[in-house]
Amino acid sequence: MKISQRLQHINHMVQGHYDHIWDCCCDHGLLGMMLLKRNTANQVHFVDCVAPLMLQLTQDLQRFFPKQAFSTGHSVAQNTLGISQWQVHCLNAADLPIEQTDITNTHLIIIAGVGGKLLIELVQALISRHGSRQIEFILCPVHHNYYVRHSLAKLGFFIQAETLLEENRRFYEVLHVTLERPCHGHPVTLTGSLMWEDLDKKDLDLAKRYLSQVIAHYQRMPSDLQVPYIIHAYQSQLAQISNAF
């Protein structure tokens, strides 16, 4: 199956090594399989609430990664093999069994393929239950990016990395965030920060088209629903990157 640009971007954004990576991407396990091959975590967890899909995924994993299987149950234990193991969980992403892991373990939770409002609901549920754990998120909403950023900022998240991409004539923002301030990190901003730095000509054109599209979207809304401060925020961001060149 062809790997989308979106999944490739997320895969490349995973730079460190974690005790647990939770793939909640609704992508038939493609991202998690790439992470398994790269040995990016002691355990890679595949999460979805659709039982037939997870049964098929379990069969695929048993076929392609037979020596790396841990369990298909819900209990989570330490990996002693020295290579990434996989585990399948048929449950809602808000119910990740992080409490079954060691308190010192590091976690990366990847959520993509859902709308911004549901994405934030999942993040809020997870940090309300596991806020004291060492958890990072990579998030890629399919829309409502301003709402996502505003919500993350209110929750106190810091940005580690962010990128903009276009696929099948749609734009996506990918955010790597954490509640612990990174060495060179700063709070999540409402219209982006790191992804507008050091743009080459191709990336600048992409950024301009994206920001122009977002501005036009908000301007097309009925006058009683328009939010002038959001329009102004994106117009200011567009002017800033345009004046930098």
TrEMBL record:
Pfam families: Methyltransf_18 (PF12847). It comes from the Bacteria. InterPro entries: SAM-dependent_MTases_sf, UCP028234. PANTHER family: TRNA (ADENINE(22)-N(1))-METHYLTRANSFERASE. This is SAM-dependent methyltransferase.
